[in-house]
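To: structure subgroup
Subject: Chain for Friday's discussion

All,

I'm putting the inputs and outputs inline so they're searchable in the archive.
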Amino acid sequence: MQFKNYFFGLPPQDRKDFAEKVGTSVGHLTNHAYGYTPLAPAVCVLVEKESGAAVTRQELREDWAAIWPELVTDKVAS
């Protein structure tokens, strides 16, 4: 799920609560939703956790494989 859809699908108070749980502001999450600013890797992990994996780290950052190489799956069959 796109972060923008997830985040703006929350009622305003839930957005505020979500931002507090992931350690940032509603404004920063809004800026990220519109593509203006990236989220720090630690925030991405918390977004994934707090969204119940509705939004994943891979969806939040284009450089996710460099940050979390353990999430890369080997698609080559042996």
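Points worth raising on Friday:
The two ends are 31 Å apart (CA to CA).
The helical segments are 3-8, 12-21, 26-33, 41-50, 57-60, 64-67.

D.
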